[in-house]
Amino acid sequence: MPLVETPERLVVVHRDKQLLADASAARLALACADAQASRGMAQIVLTGGSMGSAIIASLVASPLRNAVGWTMVEVWWGDERYLDTGDPDRNETQARDAGLDSLGLDAFRVHPMAGPDRAESTEQATGLYARELASGMRGPDPRGVSVPDFDVVMLGVGPDAHVASLFPGHPALKSQAAAVAVHNSPKPPPDRVSLTFRSLESARQVWFLVSGDDKAEAVARSLGGASREEAPAGSVHGRESTVWLVDRAAATDLR
Ligand code: 6PG
Questions:
Q1: Does the CB atom of residue 79 touch ligand 1 within 6 A?
Q2: pLDDT(5) > 90
Q3: Residue nearest atom 13 in ligand 1 by C-alpha distance
């Protein structure tokens, strides 16, 4: 497995999507075990999209899932489509369909974002999530953003280099809050709730999970120093580490 190290981040290239998902799931299990050994709890942020489902399916099948005390894992989402609970297009539904509930999590520690069945508007859903994030804080708030001490934030990347629901050139990029309501998303559905850059970057580790040659240009642009407005993915860094987990197809344009 080739490794490419830069001063700012690590890029790990796996052979194909299945190996990428399996290796990332193993990495996640061990990161949760490490966090629990250090702090008693693990706080993780899930991504939507195909990689979000793939890593959960791999985790469910991995023997390393037994390294984690799942009742002591808090699960959050980086973004959600503003759709009713159970809608097949919700990131939450897709994570549950991939087997999230079979891990043995405590239901009270799983924090989906609200849809129209629980909040009248995306703004209300955003406000509810910001409060839930603040109530999940356990210690000091060095970054002043009032979110839990996330151990790992996972992010899929779109072909336009978006992450979560932070799209190139979109006004939501400028939010300084913990979460932001997103309208007119270029990727359907148009209304979404997203964590902001400030929240994502408060994480100890930020991992990007990217598969497929349709993402090659976005990966190269993100790692090539494009601006935050042009390539939101490229500008997100973890406090301790930033790791790009990609398959060979997504790495095609890296040199
Ligand atoms: C969403 C996702 C989004 C996704 C990327 C990558 O709600 O649509 O959160 O940010 O992660 O678009 O998606 P794929 O892994 O399916 O390419």
A1: yes
A2: no
A3: 49
